[in-house]
Amino acid sequence: MSFTGSLLGLRCMARARSNSLRDGWMVAAAVAIGGTGIWVMHFIAMLGFTIDGASIRYNVPLTLISALIAMLVVWIGIGVAQRRDWGPGALLLGGAITGAGVGTMHYCGMYAMKSDAALDYNGWIVAVSIVIAVIAATAALWFTLHVRGTLATVGAAAVMGVAVSGMHYTGMFAMRVQHVAHAHQPSGAGAAQLLTPLTVGVSMVTVVLLLHLAMTEAGESEARTTRSRRPAQYWPTRD
Predict the structure, then answer these.
(1) Of 36, 30, 40, 107, which is closest to residue 73 (Cα–Cα)?
(2) Where are the chain's structural domains?
């Protein structure tokens, strides 16, 4: 999902660079990268996470907030990185904002996970995961601004997917679990009750974006073909 969301986001940004509806395509890119490429990947991975002998539940409002954070910080980062009047610092600032936001999304999502086991984190590894997020976000923003061509886009999406996954699993590696005697059963929604519908919902939005992107590109390609043929219809020939 990281690769799919990143690929779709890069294509949306390519449209934003060459289309009058720039703001709309930027929002679509933020939804694709932040929603599918980052958030959905995070919670699909969480579906496979279990703690032996302990229950896991999810706080619904915090889980939804984490999704909004992911999309919002990508949108802000894209907007900041495109400020050419700010020079190279715009990309670095956008990457820092987006990376810190992605880290916030991850740990907000982890805080939304409730268990009857005690959870804590290794601070140094958490810091490393944030650094990875900032570096990955900066690279991703650079890709959104400069990558052109099919092969380059696919390669950039693969790099972004690996980076997002690396940040997630580094953050998971920072977590330490300790069983607690006589702990209360956690409240909240189970993984299947919450994460599956949310993941499917965001994935459906991704499919809609993908179809819209494909139809838009096909329509513009047909329009270009029509314009290229039009002079031949009216230009006098020697026949």
Answers:
(1) 30
(2) 1-213
